[in-house]
Design goal:
With about 180 residues, this protein is of the alpha+beta class. It is built from one helix and nine strands, in the order H-E-E-E-E-E-E-E-E-E. Strand 4 and strand 5 form a beta hairpin.
């Protein structure tokens, strides 16, 4: 390739090299700008690269339910486990009154179960029988647990968790 300053071919080749290098530089600059803009947009929308603190441990029940909007999950722990002095079973709701379709968070402890026990959320029906809610969860260290549900069925409802020889106290929530 002739790049000499004395010939017409050399001048034309130098011009072609400058154009190609300019296009490469412009492409790199545009690519970097688009990458930073895309990363900023992803961050602004709340997407994160970190995996959840613990795996989701839930499964629907085999019985049909009128609660198709329920998304069973086990969120990451937000509070430390129970103190060593407290060994009583516990079950509490984040609120005693919510709107239909609003998230209800439950937490508690099953001291005798330890980590990895599967518990089933239940709701007390109007006839007094307990029915399985389509949410299960796994206990963490010390038998602590937490989960959340969504229901649009209005009224005053008692909830509990059961499993592996354990039955929690009830938590009453007014929905509506």
């Amino acid at each position: 390739m002739d790049l000499s300053k004395e010939t017409a071919d050399g001048a034309r080749n130098r011009l072609a090299v400058k154009i190609v290098l300019g296009l490469v530089a412009a492409g790199v600059a545009i690519g970097l700008l688009m990458g930073f803009a895309g990363a900023s947009a992803i961050r602004a929308l709340g997407f994160k690269a970190d995996p959840p603190a613990e795996p989701v441990a839930s499964s629907p029940t085999s019985e049909p339910t009128d609660e198709p909007e329920t998304e069973p999950t086990t969120p990451a722990p937000t509070t430390p486990g129970p103190s060593p002095a407290k060994k009583e079973p516990a079950f509490r709701a984040s609120s005693d009154k919510v709107s239909p379709g609003e998230r209800i968070e439950f937490s508690g402890r099953a001291p005798g179960l330890g980590s990895g026990a599967t518990l089933q959320v239940q709701r007390k029906e109007a006839d007094g029988d307990w029915s399985d809610f389509p949410v299960t969860l796994e206990t963490r260290k010390g038998g602590t647990f937490s989960t959340w549900i969504v229901t649009s069925r209005t009224g005053r409802w008692d909830f509990r968790v059961v499993g592996e020889g354990f039955s929690s106290p009830t938590a009453t929530v007014e929905i509506g």
